[in-house]
Design brief:
heterodimer; A: mainly beta; 2 domains; 6-stranded parallel sheet; 2 helices; globular; B: Rossmann fold; 6-stranded mixed sheet; 4-stranded antiparallel sheet
């Protein structure tokens, strides 16, 4: 069983140490620039599956794993205003599984940058890292997604991918044929896209 | 109740249907049969104003011209369409879609009534009671998708049901379930059915009143149920 908590990240430089299994159900990010390091003790499971609106944030969250950690983070992100968010995950020990998934719906035309970085350090083994970014882009909003991966160990499995999807005609037709007007159908599709990884 | 007069359908420069005429009255079941590519699915989509299709002619429903109405407006009048491959909507649960559709139709349903109704419908369709909490047509087999569409239909209570190869992906038992649900629905509601199918068992169970043969982009022959037997015996090449 994991402890469920809302996490509040402070402005500028901060550290959070996690010694027991934790499920973050809500993230509170500051409006000012932030740089937060999260350190996991050995054998700790860190999970977070929630929706988050990025409203003009600028900062970095760096998750440091040791041995036998499980990191499973899936966030449904909407962006309003211009954002710059970096999520880093360093695997410095052995036998850690880390999966970070973002489903993103940009809501206005302010260009946001979202960078995810996976680092598997040398002389580590049996680590697995998976990074997935999916963007639903409806009105050709600008968003820059940078899934980066630095693997310094030969004994690791690492994967990353980024995909962009739009709403297709048949998807809209299907919902319209149930009596939903176009705007309502699009809202339902956007909401579903953000929530889809929560249901899994 | 429902009339198609001199309907022509095209996409871009390509003609897909030519001079289609059908009249459907309450309690009737009309079957559309025809070879692959004849335009059967196009006809279903054209009735619902699929955005890729251009049409001229007249389609009317309950004495109202619906030719140029949008898909959602046609659906709200009581025309329900089940596609050959119902589209999956990731992350959206059936309960959300059905309740939104009911709200849009002007018949909102409180959650207690909804729960009571869906349990009844799940039993009727022979599906698990957790179906409404599953994502719309996501990770469902062909048969499950069709039953899922019928579940939504039972809530929306349409007056005209358009079914495009509802039998595809269904096993023998599922075909019986689907026929039973449609026949029960007909018994308890004033409605009509337009169905594209060549499935002998389903035809027997539904007992259609009219059959139309669509070939070469038009209706080549219309008759009573005897036409479906003739088509199934002789094949399309003999018409």
């Amino acid at each position: 069983m994991s402890k469920k908590e809302k996490i509040k990240i402070l402005a500028q430089k901060s550290n959070i140490k996690i010694a027991e299994n934790l499920d973050i159900y809500e993230w509170e990010l500051p409006n000012e620039e932030f740089d937060c390091d999260i350190f996991l003790a050995d054998n700790v499971i860190l999970e977070s599956h929630c929706l988050l609106n990025l409203n003009g944030i600028n900062g970095k969250i760096h998750i440091h794993c040791q041995n036998n950690n499980v990191v499973n983070i899936s966030l449904g992100l909407t962006t309003t205003k211009e954002n710059n968010l970096q999520i880093l995950n360093t695997l410095a020990g052995n036998s850690t599984f880390s999966k970070i998934t973002f489903h993103i719906v940009p809501k206005d035309n302010c260009p946001s940058v979202l960078k995810t970085v996976g680092i598997i350090e040398e002389k580590t083994k049996d680590n697995e890292f998976l990074e997935q970014i999916k963007v639903l882009n409806i009105n050709e909003q600008q968003i820059k997604c940078l899934p980066e991966l630095y693997v310094y160990s030969n004994e690791a499995i690492a994967n990353h991918n980024a995909t962009i999807k739009t709403i297709n005609e048949d998807e809209l037709f299907y919902l319209n044929s149930k009596g939903l007007v176009k705007e309502q159908a699009m809202d339902l599709i956007k909401e579903g896209f953000l929530k889809s990884m929560l249901n899994k | 109740m429902f009339q198609i007069k001199n309907l022509n359908v095209k996409t871009g420069d390509r003609k897909l249907l030519n001079n289609i005429n059908i009249e459907i009255n309450e309690n009737e079941i009309h079957v559309i049969m025809g070879p692959n590519g004849a335009g059967k699915s196009t006809l279903c989509k054209a009735i619902l104003s699929h955005p890729s299709l251009e049409k001229n002619g007249t389609i009317s429903f309950d004495n109202q011209d619906i030719t140029n109405l949008k898909t959602d407006q046609i659906a709200k009048l009581g025309i329900y369409y089940i596609a050959q491959s119902p589209f999956p909507i990731e992350g959206v649960k059936n309960v959300e879609l059905i309740r939104t559709a009911l709200q849009e139709k002007g018949s909102p349903m409180d959650i207690f009534t909804f729960n009571k109704e869906y349990k009844k419908y799940c039993e009727e369709l022979n599906i698990d009671k957790d179906f409404v909490h599953r994502e719309v047509n996501v990770n469902m087999s062909g048969g499950e998708k069709k039953k899922n569409e019928l579940l939504t239909m039972l809530f929306l209570k349409p007056k005209l049901i358009i079914l495009d190869e509802i039998d595809s992906g269904l096993d023998v038992d599922a075909i019986k379930d689907v026929a039973k649900v449609l026949n029960n629905y007909r018994k308890n509601n004033s409605c009509a059915i337009l169905i594209v199918t060549h499935q002998e068992m389903l035809l027997k169970l539904l007992n259609p009143t009219h059959v139309h043969l669509v070939m070469d982009k038009t209706i080549k022959k219309s008759s009573d149920a005897s036409l479906s037997k003739e088509i199934l015996e002789k094949g399309f090449n003999n018409f």
